[in-house]
Bcr/CflA family efflux transporter (Legionella pneumophila subsp. pascullei), 447 residues
Amino acid sequence: MGIFDFVDVVAYVLFSNTFVLLVNNDIVISLVRNYSKGYLMHQEHLGQTDTPKIDPWLVFVILMLMALMQTTTDQYIPSLPAITTALNSTEASIQLTISMFMLGLSISHVFYGPLSDKIGRKPPLLFGVGLSILGSLFCFFAPTASVLILGRFLQGFGIGCCNSVGRSLVRDLFTDRLLAKIGSYVGVVSIFIMAASPTLGGFIQEKAGWKANFLFLFVFGILVWLLAFSILPETNKHLNPEATKIKVMAKNYFTLLRSKVFLGYTLCACFAFAGLVSYLTIAPFLFQNTLGLSPLEFGRLTFFIAGAICFSGIVNSQLVMRKGISFMVCTGVLFMIAGGLSLLLITILGWSQIYSIMIPITLFSAGAGFTFINAFAGAFHPFPQMAGTVGALYASMQDLSAALTSGFIAGVKGYGQYSLAMILLILGLSSLVAWYYLGLQDDAISN
């Protein structure tokens, strides 16, 4: 069996299992994107009692918002080598398009959340999606790497509204069991788009070139904007004029940053997410320029990562109630270290094949999945009265860590197998330090 025959098997198993999770009415396992590109897996025991009907159009728009965010994030990744050549640029400059996107995303979380509390959900959502459309246009017409970097920053800052405002919008519209049910839909769509987006991007790159990916995002963005404008109601019935006061926001953020539990769990998630973004930053050049894969073949490798995260979510749902959050975070951290260390050893031995790289990447991704799921819950646990602020800061730090890491990779011109191995190992070990730092403080929820 060839590598891409195996990928097809992984894709079949992945999507057949996520469908089973969706239609299971007894235990719905919800894998939900948190604010920063992480996931929350939890179990909701759903009975057969009558519940209010769900407007399918509302659900459809919410899912399209999530799909737009995911495709804007990584659909163009298989085109990075082609963009480097077309713009007569360097790998480091094009890698900065990822850094600036993540930086824009990081800033957006602390902007849209309070603003949507003050003036309502719909205006910031429409503004953000509109800004991402403008960013796609900048990228499409970009004559230089600098303009492309600016366009990616606009995309990141704009599309962040889909998480920040979209999450609040869902909480406004649905409660309890309906919220869990919508979470299951979002989880399935997120996993599907996570795997399919780079594959679609690779296909478009091969058939129409790199600009076509940004044209696709431009058209898709307009469609989603029109759907949101036409269908979504204003859901914030309790506007808070104090929501954007700098003094109040700063006080809440400093409270969180002084919490060892919040800081420890959040740093674990930051390092895990930074590892996945490091893969996205280095892998296009490694697999296409060095190993000779086509853009489509490279895009299909994302199924390994999506499958690993799905696997960790399923396993976590069976163990977390018995083992506790802190134990499961430690499990994820050890998987990440194993992935980074095995990739480093393979690199030292001179092995550079697709399997020899993707197996360690899959290990790291499974560890990241365990970490996302449990660190998200652990960071929120001590601050139920500040859930919105916790979510904004958690996501902002996560995306900022990814921006800094990918920027560092561009700065040191890291686009080889050894660079990826070292970065993953260092991030895994850093997560272990953060877990140990929080583990001693977290007796309340680790059992």
Q: What stands out?
A: The domain at 3-446 is CATH 1.20.1250.20 (Growth Hormone; Chain: A;). The two ends are 44 Å apart (CA to CA). The mean pLDDT is 84. The chain has one domain: 3-446.
